[in-house]
Each structure stands twice: as C-alpha cells, then as structure tokens.
Amino acid sequence: MSSIVLFLEKDRELQTVMPAFLRERGFRVECARSVQEARAVLASMPVDAAVVDSLLPGMVGLDFLQELRRAKPTLPILLASRMWKDVKGREQFLKELRVTRILQKPYTPQELFIWVEQALARQWVEQTLARQRPGPVAGKPPLPADVSEELAAANAEYGRHLKRRLASLTEALAQARTGSAESVEALYYDAHKLHGSAGSFGFAPVGEAAGRLEALVKPARAGQAVDWAAIEASLKELAETLHSPAPKAVEAPKPTSLMGSVLVVDDDAEWLAEVERMGKAQEVKVLTAQDMDEAVERARGQWLDGALLHVHLGGPEGGFEAAARLRSQKLWDSLPLAFFSADGDLAHRVAAAHAGGSLYLPKPFATADLIGAVERLVAARRPERSRVLVLADDEEARSAISHAVAGHRVEVTALTDPFRLLDALAEHRPELLVLDVELPGPSGFDLCRIIRSMPEWEELPILLITTQQGAEFRVAAFEAGADDYLTRPVLHEELVARMHSRLERVRLARERSERDALTGLLLRRPFLEALRARLSEGRRQQRPLALCFLDVDHFKQVNDTHGHVAGDHVLARLGRLLTTRFRREDLRGRWGGEEFVVALAGETAASAKEILTRTAAELAAVKFSGDHGESFQITFSAGIVEAPRDGEDAETLLREADARLYRAKANGRNRIEL
C-alpha cells in the first residue's frame, strides 16, 4: 500500500509539479491549498506525512502546525519556507513542534522526494524501536521491486551457508578445548561475525544465539577460565535455531513508475503519434505537442525528465527559440534537452549545443534511439549518486550494508583490508565512511583517529558498526572522532535514515561552499576540480575540450556610472544566461570579479567560438536599468583554447585562455579570440 502524503501549498505551480513527481515514484499525494482543505483530507483518511507551507491563506502556519501536532503527535511534518534566518524560530519549530525538517525554498522535486522518503523511514525506525520488536509497521515506505528481489536473494544465499558456518564453529570449539589459543580466537571471531550479520539477513534468532556464544567465549581470549559445558550448550542452542522456519521473502510490489517522462515537440502530427507509440511500448511516458504554446500547456502540472524538440519547429531553427522559452520557466530552467531533425549539419549542431542540447538525433529516429535519449536525459535530471566506503572484514556484514542501501542513489565500495583504507579514500573520494569497530589489525577507533588527523578528511562523516551497546563504547566512539554508530544486527531502515541524514548534510555544505551566491555558478576551486576530471575523461575518450575565459567589458565603468546594484544585476544575468544555455554536462564558473570561465566538453575552439558568439549576441541585446532608471547595455570579450591542442593540463590551458582574453580586450573588446 502506498504511503499517503498531504501536500499543503498555496503556490499553484508547486501544487502541480511536486505531487506529480512523488506520484510517479509510488506515493499517494493529497493536495490542499488552504487549511480547510487540509482538515478535510486529514478527517477522511490516514495520512503518513505532511508537507506544509509556512505562509497559509487564512491562518498563520505556526497555528496550524500546533493544531496538527495536537491531533497527530507522531506525524512526520516537513515545513516549507523562504525565511529561516531566525535561529530561535527555527529551534522552536524543530524542537517544540517536532517538525521533521524545514525545507528551504526553492527546493527541487528530487530533494522533496528524498526528504519525504527519509522522514517516513525515520518514523518507521522510531516506531520499531519503541515497540522493541522487528516487523512490518503500517506506513513503512515500499521497497522498489528490484531491491526487494535482491534482498530476498541475499537472505536465501546467506541461509544456505549457515550449516557450513555451524560446522566451522563446532570444529573450532573442539580444537579450543584442547588449549589451542588460535582456535579460541577462531571460535570467538566466527561467533562474532555470525552475531553481527545474521539479523541483517532476517535470521534474528541465529544472531541472538551467536551473541550469547560470543559473550561466553570472550574471556578465553584473555586466558581466563571459562565454562566449556555452558559454551557447548550455547552452541547446541545455536544449532537448534537453524531449524527455525526461514524468513519470508520480501514481496516485491509492482513497479509504480515508468522509465521516464519526456516532452516531444514537433509540428508533424503523424510522427508524434509514432513517437508516442514507441514510448508506450517501452514504458516511457511521452507528452506530445505541435507548438510551444501547446507544449507549455501540456507540460504544466507534469514532471518532466527532459524534452526532445524539432530543430525547425514552426520555422527555420524555431526549436532553439522554443528551448529558450521552455528554460525561461522557473521549474524548467535546467531541464535536459535533446534536438532532432532530418538535416544534422554542423551549424545546427552548434546552435543546439548553445541552446542546451545534450543530444542531436536524426529524424526519423528508431525506438533504440528514443530509449537511449530518455536514459541519458533521466540520468542528467537525477540527483548525483552519493559515494559510500564500507570497511568490514566480515563478508556478510559488507553484503548486508550494501544491500540495505541499494536503490537509494548510493554507490557503495566495499573494503576488507584496513591497511588499504587511505589508498581507498584517495581513489574513491567517499562522502561517508562506514567502519566496523572490530577489525584485524588497527581497530575502527584507531582508524577514526588517523582519519581525523588528516586535514583532507577531518570533516568526512564516519559511521561505526558494532555489536557493543554500553556507555563506555559510545564515549570511546565519539572521542575517537566518529559522527554516529549503529549496533548489530543493523536495521535496514535505521541505516538508510542515518546514512541519508549524514549525506544530506555533506551535500548542503558542499552546495554552500562551491557555488557563488550572486550568479549560482561554480567558484574557482570546485571549477578547477571538475575541469581536471573533464580533461582526464577527454584524454581517455580522445575527445577535445574547449575552455573559454569571459570578461564583462568596461565593468568598472558600469559600477561607477550606473551603481553597484546595477553591476550586480549584470553579473547575475550573465550567470543565469550561462546556466540556461549550453548542456548540463558543460562547466560554468565565476573566476572572480567580472571574469567567468566555461568548459565545453567535446567541442573544438572553432565550434566553441560559434556557440559563444550566440551567447554574446543574446547578452548584448539585454537592456539593463541603472540606479536612476537609465538604460544601458553591455558586451563581453573572450579567449578560447582547445585541449589537447593548446595544452593538456588545466593550468596551461587557463594561462593561454587568459592571454587570449587580454588580446581580445587589447584589440577593441566585444570580440572572441582563438
């Protein structure tokens, strides 16, 4: 059964797009534009979560939240607002009214989906822990079908190896009773691993019995006397639990979402019908329109993963004008685009790249071309996958964690050797590290201290996994530098909730530190990092890359004559123009002051000049207003270099592009030099 989300929002645009995105991902969304409508929804059905706007017509948001909290004390509530500079007010909502999260407007549909999913998972965890028993709880968000099938397969595979593990324990016990210290250690670690992993694969009684065996054997590691009869009885109890019924496989729900949703715009009605037929056969939602007015109307209230536009829509190169109009809409300013036409000459391909097209397809295109385009558009629209590094010497523990986070936009790298941790950090650049406390060699605590001593990784979130629960362990974990910890067996929903909480903080911190507040473009350091990655990728694929330095002409004069506010408007407008033009995979950054830098992957210097010439013409046509209402216009100068022709490393290319920029300014400005 789908989770029900109340979406209380007065903005009609958000009322249509956000619920559409959630519905396509399996949620049932009930919309309300007023408190009265929200009350009617709450009275008619059980709601699992609520998204509430802070400014409500006819009632203060705080008053409604108090009313809602009295009626539903445990309901997850997400509060949307543009104004959260008041720290005390924020604390009141988070603590006194137990608001699950404050959503800073504007937020994206993907962010809302992640936060709603996380809020429901967190509520399920809290309910489960409160009742002190595992098991299904009403309101738990359904797992995707492929993830459910993987979990069921992993559980079954784990169960098939339990008898072998029991035989290993029995043999180790027989050897340990003869006084073999090595066998005592093997017995302890086998019990420890079974204790930590069995519950995560659905064999909770086995894990609990293994935990009791582990506790009985532990003193023997220090050479202390133990009750071998009690240990044998404990092992016998463990063997008896293997005859318990196997855990039921997770029932996979039917898929609730399509491969993607795309808008296709062409004035050829027969071709649109054919594209719609191809999409339906491949589980792609295709919205069609024959002109831009119809396209905007059809797309309103729908979630779009991308748009495919005919180059000559309504006339020569009309598709490029349509793309600019589409991206001028608030919710579609970064929408991935593709173009198609029967003529694919270079001029049209250059214009398509400037308009933001990531793909250029022939017309007519085949079903395989459509599916490939949709996959690429959906991938561009989807949030970037987070990187998690897991270090555990127990294969089952690693597998349990990997399966737990599967399908949650997370890329997991597993590691067994603690001595390779530093190399793995440098290679994979994780955003979260999950550490097993008990490792052969350095412990998880030791590794925490080592990582915290390295400036590069001192802010990396670290999550410890352990079988220990005492206060002494918690103190030691935090003193070593861990951010959080989980006890085994690891509860799937709790792991996901804690992991997403840490990853989200990383993402928000990175967004604040990497983006220029005025233009929204990358700052110098993150731009350089991304540029080096693009250059490396270009070398592997033997593709060129064009790097462009831009400088606003006579910008000091703009500030002196028209005012600094007008100057800020110029920079912000140029930043928005660079954001909404070009392809999503191209890089745009603010280098400093009035200087900007753009990297166009796969383009030569010549094609990049044609693309930037269009951008320069667009900017020159914009009329700005000064502090006293006077009108003025601006231009920019640019220098372009091409990799690998003009250099292979970022520093060489930037120096040469800068030199060509100054040559453009010396030659009269408002020009582009190669």
> Number of DSSP helices?
25
How many individual β-strands? 24
**Separation of termini?**
61 Å
Structural class call reads alpha/beta
Oligomer: single chain
Shape estimate = globular
Rg is 29 Å
Fraction of residues in β-strands: 15-25%
The percentage helix is 40-55%
Instruction: Round the mean pLDDT to the nearest integer and report it.
Output: 80
Low-pLDDT ranges: 84-89, 132-150, 246-257
Sheet with most strands: 5 strands, parallel
Kindly describe this structure.
The chain is built from 25 helices and 24 strands. It is of the alpha/beta class. Strand 11, helix 14 and strand 12 form a beta-alpha-beta unit. The strands form 6 sheets. A 5-stranded parallel sheet has the order 2-1-3-6-7, with helices on both faces. Strands 9-8-10-11-12 form a 5-stranded parallel sheet, sandwiched between helices. The longest helix is centred in the N-terminal third of the chain and has 23 residues. The chain is globular and about 90 Å long.
